[in-house]
Amino acid sequence: MNGADVLCDTLLAGDVDVCFANPGTSEMHFVAALDRKPAMRCVLGLFEGVVTGAADGYARMADKPAATLMHLGPGLANGLANLHNARRAGTPVVNIVGEHATYHLPFDAPLTSDIESLARPMSAWVGRIGHSDDVGERAAQAIAASRANGGSVATLILPADAAWGETSQTAPGVPPTADGGIPDDAVLRDVASRLRNGLRNGRRTLLLLSGRALRADALVVAGRIAQATGARLLAQQSNARIERGAGRVPIERVLYNIDACTADLANIEQVVLIGAKAPVGFFAYPGKPSDMLPPGCDVVTYTTRGHDALASLRALAEALGLKADAPVTLAAAATQERPTGALTPAAIAAVVGRHLPEGAIVCDEAITSGHAFFKLTMGAAPHDFLALTGGAIGAGQPMGTGAAVACPDRKVVCLQADGSGMFTLQALWTQARERLDVVTIIFANRGYAILHNELKQVGAGEAGHNARRMLDLVDPTLDWVKLAAGMGVEATCVDTIERFNDVFAMAMRRRGPFLIEARI
Question: How confident is the model at residue 469, as a pLDDT?
Answer without folding.
Answer: 85
